[in-house]
Amino acid sequence: MFKEQFNVRFYETDGLAHVSNTVVVGWFETGREPVFKLFSPELDLQNWPLILASYKVDFLSQIFYGKPVEIRTYISRIGNSSFDTYQEVWQDNIKCASGTTTMVRYDFSTEKAVAIDAHIKTQLNEHMFAVEQDS
Fold first, then answer.
1. Which residues, 6+ apart, have CB-to-CB distance to 109 below 8 Å?
2. Any alpha helices (H) in the chain, and if so which ranges?
3. Could you list the residue range(s) of the whole structural domain that residue 24 is in?
4. Pairing of strands 2-7, 50-59
5. What SUPFAM superfamilies does its record include (predicted)?
6. Beta partners for 39?
C-alpha cells in the first residue's frame, strides 16, 4: 500500500462546508504517483506509458476542511496490459471515500495497449489489496 497524507485546503470546500466531490478524483491521482513512478521513474511526460481507462468513486462520509486526510492506494487487479488501483480517503479514522481506477500501459506511437513488463508486475504485486478488518 502507498500512503499520502496532506491537509485539506480551503478552496477544496464547497457551499455545503465540506470537500467538493470533484476534489477526491484529484487526490486519487496524486495518490497514484508512486505507481506512475514504477512505469516512469522520472515521470517523463514526453514518453508517458499509461492512460486512464476508467474510474469509479464511492462517497461514504463527508470530508471536512481543517483536518488532514490520508489517501491509501493499493493494486487490486493486474492484467496483461492493464491494472486497477483501489484507493481510499481517510479522515479522523473514518473511510470517507473509495474508488477504483483502471490504467492501461499504452504506446502512443502505435496507439495500442502493450503488455506490462514482468518486473513491473512484480512491483505492482507488492502492493496488492488485502482486505483489512474494520476497527
1. none
2. 21-31, 33-39, 118-125
3. 2-125
4. unpaired
5. Thioesterase/thiol ester dehydrase-isomerase (SSF54637)
6. none
**51: which 3 cell numbers?**
492512460
Q: Is residue 117 part of a domain?
A: yes
pLDDT tens digit sequence for 35-53: 999 999 999 999 999 999 9
CA 77 – CA 86 distance, rounded (Å): 9
Reported as a single tens digit per residue, the pLDDT across 101-132 is 999 999 999 999 999 999 999 999 999 987 55
Q: Is residue 60 part of a domain?
A: yes
**CATH value at residue 100:** 3.10.129.10
Residue type, 65: Y
In this structure, is residue 135 part of a structural domain?
no
Count how many domains the chain has. Answer: 1
The model's pLDDT over 6-26, given as tens digits with 9 standing for 90+, comes to 999 999 988 777 898 899 999
